[in-house]
Amino acid sequence: MKLWGGRFAKETSQLMDDFHSSISFDSRLAVQDITGSIAHARMLGQQGIIAKEDSEKIIAGLKTILEDAIMGNIEFSPHDEDIHMNVEVLLTNKIGAVGKKLHTGRSRNDQVCTDFKLYMRHRATEIRALEVSLMETVLDLAKKYFGKMMPGYTHLQQAQPIYFSHYLMSMFFAVSRDVKRLDNFLELHSELPLGSGAMAGSAFPYHRALVAKELGFNGVSPNSIDAVSHRDMMLEFEADLAIIANTMSRYAEDFVNWSTSEFGYLTLHDAFSSGSSMMPQKKNPDSMELIRGKSGRMLGNFSALYTLVKGAPLSYSRDLQEDKEPVFDSVHNVKVILRVMKEALESARFNFDKMHAKMLPALLATDLADLLVESGVPFRDAHHVVGSLVGEAARQGLEFTDLSDEAWASAGVPNVSQMKKTLTFEYSVSRRNIEGGTGPKSVKQQFVKADAILKKFKK
Ligand code: ARG
Asked: pLDDT of 74-95, one tens digit each?
């Protein structure tokens, strides 16, 4: 007999049971479901909605089920449909008929929202911790390798000299925004749905604030229809996770490029690479390729959820049961992505000699134009002068710094030998101590900011 079977004269078909049962995936909510039920049962007893002794028996039973769930010792039954009914059946089997009082004053509609909300809040906190730990790794590396230079890129073409640490710090600050997004998420979605019932509110003297407090919510939802209907929390979580994966995918792409023999800037540890089944020489940067690749499914999960919820009638329809698997998938993959990125970076070798050797003199073209500006040439003219030198050199298969002093002078460069002496990579970065720039002082200033951010995040 189904828990909701009273109205029915016939059993559901096996096909229907398989179709609508969600226990195969929502058993992941077991801990949140049981914890929520313990708080609910305690409140029922305190409010005299059920007898105190009954409440105590229910709580004791739920606690043993919780231990079993944590140990992974429960075999859930597809016959009991979902995690909520599985727990109720387990409880009643354990403590007898008094277990049937647990569901007083609530519906699975407010229950599932409560469970899932708790789940997402827990996972957001764990993902946040992984992000902070990645930020620590990145900052440590940036500090350790302070002073090493590399070509900076736009359009994947060499653009300007930068410090390697400046590149790494770009990752630090990008991840810090991903953390702030999770913090916003945690702040916004902090209200308890329980007490909303199926959609109109519980008819019992349900002490919502008491349950909210025990479960760590900051308040109670202000409208019962909204509480059981809305899925913007899931959408926002998915979006935040998709953005995290997107951030990681861009660095992963750079690291894939850096791992090629053409670049040679990065050697991933064997532990984060794999080989080819056919070509014995291959060592492939699969860890980074998979980070890049998996970011696609995050958007897929977001789209699945968005499409599911779009135009869904208020308040609850069974469609909404489908909100969970995309979130579970994204949570799992984002966690792995963040752990792999951290450990791959920690164990990687950065080949600074290669980076330096690859730096082309043309990285200094902007600096020459700036020097001309300082000697009184309007920037647009200076740009043209340097452009003509670079173009001429390219036609001769040379670097613009290889052209003769006469060629520079006749293109319009004054004090050529002084200019040539001034133009070094060190000079270029030293000119960029502007806040946020790649200058040495600026990069050190970024370390100070980063230390402060980490301190705040870890409070
Ligand atoms: N398993 C369901 C879900 O995840 C629980 C809520 C079911 N409510 C209902 N009225 N059938 O959405």
From this structure: 999 988 999 999 999 999 999 9
Q: Taking the model in full, what pTM does it have?
A: 0.95
Question: For residue 179, what are the contacts with CB-CB under 8 A and spacing of at least 6?
Answer: 128, 131, 132, 135, 457
146-to-333, 373, 455 alpha-carbon distances in Å? 32, 30, 21
> How far away, in angstroms, is 233 Cα from ligand 1 center?
17
DSSP state letters, 131-173: HHHHHHHHHHHHHHTTT-EEEEEETTEEEEEEEHHHHHHHHHH
Cα–Cα distance between 216 and 207 in angstroms, integer?
A: 15
Testing ligand 1's pocket by substitution, the residue of 318, 324, 325 carrying the most ligand atoms inside 8 A of its CB is 318
238 C-beta closer than 6 A to ligand 1:
no
For 229-281, the pLDDT digits (tens) are 999 999 999 999 999 999 999 999 999 999 999 999 999 998 888 887 878 78
CA 321 to chain centre: 24
Establish whether the linkage from the previous residue to 176 is cis, with ω within 30° of 0: no
Active centre residues (catalytic)? 155, 276
Q: How many whole angstroms from 132 Cα to the centroid of ligand 1?
A: 35
Contact 203, 105 (CB under 8 A): yes
CA distance 117 to 192: 8
Q: At what angle do helices 30-46 and 208-215 cross, to 10 degrees?
A: 140
